[in-house]
Amino acid sequence: MSSAFYGDNNTQVKKQQMNARFEALKTEAAERDKLDVDQKKYETFREKVKSTISKLVDTKEAPWLKSHNGDTRLSYFPETNYEPQGFTAVWLKIREQELGSSDPRWYSRKDIFSNGYHIGHNEKATVMGFRGADDSIKYNYYWNAAQLSKIPPYEKTYTVSQEQPPIYRPQTTGQGKDKTYHSQETLRADITNWLTSIATHTPYEPRGLNRTEQVKEYIEKANPGMFFYVAKDASDTSKKIIEKSQDSFRQKEQKNEKNIGLEL
Fold first, then answer.
1. How buried is residue 108: exposed, middle or buried, by Cβ count under 10 Å (0-12/13-18/19+)?
2. Distance between CA atoms of 194 and 93, rounded to whole angstroms?
3. How many domains does the chain have?
4. Is residue 32 one of the residues assigned to a domain?
């Protein structure tokens, strides 16, 4: 039989190539749509953070604008005893306040079910959006211990200290009567000192209460990513302050021990 009976081979190959190309284009379009959806979801998350922080500052309900007696600790994950840093450390504390919880323990869904705990009725997860190392957008979902049942009561493992850590002071511009505080620096300093007090279990008094209006205006005008940067910077600064303070304390102790040895 002639090849024409079965159709031209070249034509069939071209059709197969066209179909493969069409399927590839469909796949690319679906991936682009997914990226668009993920990007919009991430932008919505960041806008939510921005509006939440703006409202908390405006009403002076931000946790770093409230005093405490030192009887607190950083949020953490009991399964690994990990204390998150940066934005996560700040956001989980904000969520604890919103939940009316004094329990700093947080759990992933996997940790909850592996321990036999139960999520309370209508209890929603705290969503944490972030960009991965490959620049893809990812989300983690956590529940506070106060949202769970069949969970053991929280037991404190720290004592309140009256040894005040060094205060971080915001950078200023100008001199004398013209001296002013940049709103971002005010926000950064407040969060730094607040985080330091929580980590060291020391009493805390806010210092930026008289500059909340300027800070709120700055937040509203700033890029939604600003607070993520400030929170990370504040967390890093707090960690350095604590490490430096601990080094100074150790050096002081060593000096005292040396002096006691000389007296003996």
1. middle
2. 11
3. 1
4. no
